[in-house]
Design goal:
2 copies of one chain form a homodimer.
Chain A lengths: L8 H19 L6 H8 L3 H7 L3 H12 L12 H15 L3 H11 L5 H10 L8 H10 L10 H18 L5 H15 L6
Helix pairs in contact in A: 1-2, 1-4, 1-6, 2-3, 4-6, 4-7, 5-8, 5-10, 9-10
The structure holds a DNA duplex.
Amino acid sequence: MTGRSRRRGEELVAALHEAALAELDAVGLGRLTMEGIARRAGTPKTTLYRRWSAPEDVLLDAIAAAYPLEEPSPAADDLRGDLIAALRLLIAWSRHPTVRAVQAIMLERHRRPDLVERLQGVFDRRGRRFTATVLRHYARLGQIDPALVTPVVEEIGEALVFKIAFDTGEEPSEALLAEIVDQAILPAVGFRPG
Amino acid sequence: MTGRSRRRGEELVAALHEAALAELDAVGLGRLTMEGIARRAGTPKTTLYRRWSAPEDVLLDAIAAAYPLEEPSPAADDLRGDLIAALRLLIAWSRHPTVRAVQAIMLERHRRPDLVERLQGVFDRRGRRFTATVLRHYARLGQIDPALVTPVVEEIGEALVFKIAFDTGEEPSEALLAEIVDQAILPAVGFRPG
DNA sequence: AGGTTAAGCTACGCATGCGTATCTCAGCAA
DNA sequence: TTGCTGAGATACGCATGCGTAGCTTAACCT
């Protein structure tokens, strides 16, 4: 009469994590609720409360369980290609549900500083390095003046990808990634535009 | 017995607009509510419902009533100084309550596309131009190669300011603005770093 | 002065999330 | 096989937002 077989342990926890992330996407951090998560997971609230006492707790747990840590591995002797690849990786990375969750929390930073603080415990924080990894690699090889790889320069690519995504509501196209690299990043590390 | 004098007309509307914006900052777009706005304005809900039928309507009205339109006016013959000034203006501009409201709506873009659409009606949209105004000015003067002032390059400064504000939760310092200009924008328009 | 408008006050029934308390029974282990 | 744990189902009283109703009366107009 129960309907379906009964989930337990890790399988159940994974389902609850997934429900929390899905619910976050659906209603936003401000409306994240125990009821909603439980409803989406098809589980009674009791089961949720047995493990967590607030929706943010479920969310932070879900983030800790599956936060992706990919890093670009510049291999080829191709600075431009590796930079574009790094931005491509950034975009793929930011499609991950837990990454979106982290961004949602960061966006509420001033309203919920407690959450940001608890997030630090989950991983080192300070967004993953994408173009920075590539730039440092080629600086080490002597193909870039290390003095030009400053904190600001390390952020140019990521900043433009975020800004464009924010403005247009869509991920930047492959062509735009190339423009970002050619027109913004490469000039900053000493390669004349054009 | 009512306590205080009775507000009417524009004075009342302005108070309700202000309450809506304050409430947005306090609880976020996801928890914006007629009850909350009315409570904050010290007015009965009836008064709100007499003019609007949902909290977003109040908010959009508030935005339309007071959206600031400042633009930098590059005057001096000082590209670097004017760029820094433009970024400074951007930061001042984004402190304005209605600008924060617009950003809040844009951030919920995928969840509430209807709001974004109604926002277009309020003003032309597509964020104000700050560094772009300056760059175009000096391109017209012939001090910058116009071919280098591409859409991507026009966004570099704003993108970095946003990214840094997002990462640190604070406005970039004056020194950082200078670094952005020196290390990212100027190289992109043909002035060698260093 | 008198009349009209709408702000202010209070209250309602409805819906939803809260946190908790049962109780039943499936899954697992001794 | 028996017994324990905890998932599943259901219900509760509480709080808050919803949208609407009614009434009183301050502010404005003529």
